[in-house]
Amino acid sequence: MIQTKTANEPFPVSDNVARMRASSTLKAMMAAEAMRAEGLDVVDLGPGEPDFDTPENIKQAAAEAMRQGKTKYTPVAGTRDLQQAIINFYEQQFGATYERSQVAATSGGKQAIFNAVVTLVNPGDEVLIPKPYWVTFPEIVTFARATPVYIETEETDFVLNAEQVERAITPRTKLVILNSPGNPSGRVIPPKEFRRIMEVLTERGIYVISDECYLRFVYSPCEVFSAASLPAELRQRLCIAGSFSKTYAMTGWRIGYSLAGAEWTRAMLTVQGHSTSNPNSIAQAAATEALTGPQESVATMLEEYGRRRGFLVDALSNIPGLRCIMPEGAFYAFPDVRGCLKGEVKTSEEFSDRLLHQEQTVVTDGAGFGAEGFIRISYATSLERLQEGIRRIRRVAESLA
Ligand SMILES: Cc1ncc(COP(=O)(O)O)c(C=O)c1O
């Protein structure tokens, strides 16, 4: 008889993973799901994904790829066609020249960021992360055994500047993760300021990941800006992490990419080659069409998001106790709810819980993004649902006044 250990022995989760926290955006998603299952009329302002369907030409390209038998492994870095489409896009839009050795297709922008961090940092290295941050940044850094160091940006209403970056640098700073337009704030770093930040970092030999997941979601008069448009000497230690998820409403397809120096890219492909290998071959064909086919759908989505943004920010600003700045990009509003924190509702988490239980309305607490006192409201939902959401938020705010 083999002696077995007791059946209910706890799973010995590794130190690397034990340090990670579960995603707070998932918490909101699960709460909405549970209420819907009970048949309640939930207003879900939580989602970090477009409410639009993937454009038809992109779906057709995927169907065609399957018919043509493009169902095998591809090179780890992606097909030539997709790599070339990415290179051409950056050349045409931003005048940047990238070689194939500097481009890797990934399973979502998230994998590009993961690859970039784990190939660069060591225990003891510090990674600067401006607040408020996308929840995944610190978790990847922690997983890689480096130390996240946060940059406070509330004094500038969450728009990062070069002085804030400079103040946070120490001899241990190895990497900075920039994200403009940002999730959750929707704020955009003005191009001139972005350049100043890159100058500071280049002078100090610090690496940069520019997460450009919301690249094309900026609202007039703001203009699309990529770090790729900076002069080559400011891009020597830069990795751009891009994504098809939001721009083309392709969250489920899982396609993103990295653009970085050839050596950094080679290291990232070693990690990817031994973990997920190439991203899905059919999704790669779809992504190629997304970049090379008609672009009207992007403009249509942007126009609709713009309409919702105008309504939402205006309506939030008129609710007593709330303060909401007009975000220049992405599809989130990030109001300050501290004016409503009274009595037993002392934190933005309690405010979000009150909204959930009293009004079946899902928002995401800002604390998970490093900004206690704020909530994230996604406007990737119809104007009609946003209007209903506003009525409910107003009721909660007034009940606390
Ligand atoms: C700021 C930011 N970066 C990256 C991603 C990753 O997107 P994906 O992995 O779907 O390309 C997201 C998704 O929510 C995001 O909000």
Overview of the structural elements:
The protein is an alpha/beta fold. Helix content is 40%, strand content 12%. The protein is built from 13 helices and 12 strands. The strands form 3 sheets. Strands 2-8-7-6-5-3-4 form a 7-stranded mixed beta sheet, sandwiched between helices. The longest helix is centred in the last third of the chain and has 22 residues, at 296-317. The radius of gyration is 22 Å and the shape is globular. The protein starts with 14 loop residues before the first helix and ends with a helix. The mean pLDDT is 95. Pyridoxal-5'-phosphate binds at residues 48, 108-110, 134, 179, 183, 211, 213, 243, 245, 251, 256. Pyridoxal-5'-phosphate (PLP) is lined by residues 48, 108-110, 134, 179, 183, 211, 213, 243, 245, 251, 256.
Average pLDDT number:
95
The secondary-structure element order is HHEHHEHEHEHEHEEEHHHEHEEEH
**Count of discrete alpha- or pi-helical segments spanning 4 or more residues:** 13
> Which ligands appear in the coordinates?
pyridoxal-5'-phosphate
Strands side by side in the biggest sheet: 2-8-7-6-5-3-4
Strand content: 5-15%
Please describe the biggest sheet, giving its number of strands, its sense, and whether it closes into a barrel. Answer: 7 strands, mixed
Helicity level: 25-40%
What would you call the structural class? alpha/beta
Instruction: Give the end-to-end Cα distance, rounded to a whole number of Å.
Output: 69 Å
The gyration radius over C-alpha positions equals: 22 Å
Query: What best-fitting shape do the alpha-carbon axes yield?
Result: globular
Strand element count: 12
> Which spans of ≥5 residues are poorly predicted at pLDDT below 50?
none
